[in-house]
């Protein structure tokens, strides 16, 4: 029997960012009680005005405050060369932040107070009856059988999802 040929061990390159602009948007010295977002200054719909309306505030340079990872710094002191109080900008974007509580409120309840993740969870719960162990056929996650799958909702609608030879 022929001997198995040994192959050389893989030598993969070190991982690196897939986006060349990534270092320009990393933020150092973040306040752990705040959530940060870069906002494109020239945006017509979701620009700084929109985020300000939602409760976000513009971030400004300060000695120990947040700053872009690639901001110009004094090599001796390590402090930014931008004057204190200057709005933090990088590549046409401004840095804005909101308190974690406000960020969580927007995520959970939406900016209008009635949308957000909580509303999505309520809608999904109303659409799916988990007690019947019925999967959502619109998402393509139904169990398949050779004769097809029958799906009935609480509202009385009924559908048969066909299963072909390729399934």
Layout of strands and helices, then pairs:
Layout: E1 27-28, E2 34-40, H1 48-54, E3 57-58, E4 67-68, E5 89-90, E6 93-99, H2 100-109, H3 117-127, E7 149-152, E8 158-161
Antiparallel strand pairs: 1-4, 2-6, 3-6, 5-6, 7-8
Number of discrete helical segments: 3
SSE succession: EEHEEEEHHEE
Taking the alpha carbons of the first and last residues, their distance comes to: 41 Å
Radius of gyration: 26 Å
Helix content: 10-25%
Shape: flat
* Number of DSSP strand runs: 8
Describe the overall structure.
The chain is of the alpha+beta class and 167 residues long. β5 and β6 form a beta hairpin. The longest helix has 11 residues, at 117-127. The protein has helices at 48-54, 100-109, 117-127, and strands at residues 27-28, 34-40, 57-58, 67-68, 89-90, 93-99, 149-152, 158-161. The protein is built from 3 helices and 8 strands. The protein has 2 domains: 22-119, no CATH class; 129-161, no CATH class. Strands 2, 3, 5 and 6 form a 4-stranded antiparallel sheet that branches. Strands 1-4 form a two-stranded antiparallel sheet. It has a two-stranded antiparallel ribbon with strand order 7-8.
Summarize the structure.
The protein is an alpha+beta fold. It has helices at residues 48-54, 100-109, 117-127; strands at residues 27-28, 34-40, 57-58, 67-68, 89-90, 93-99, 149-152, 158-161.
Features:
four-stranded antiparallel β-sheet; two-stranded antiparallel ribbon; alpha+beta; 167 residues
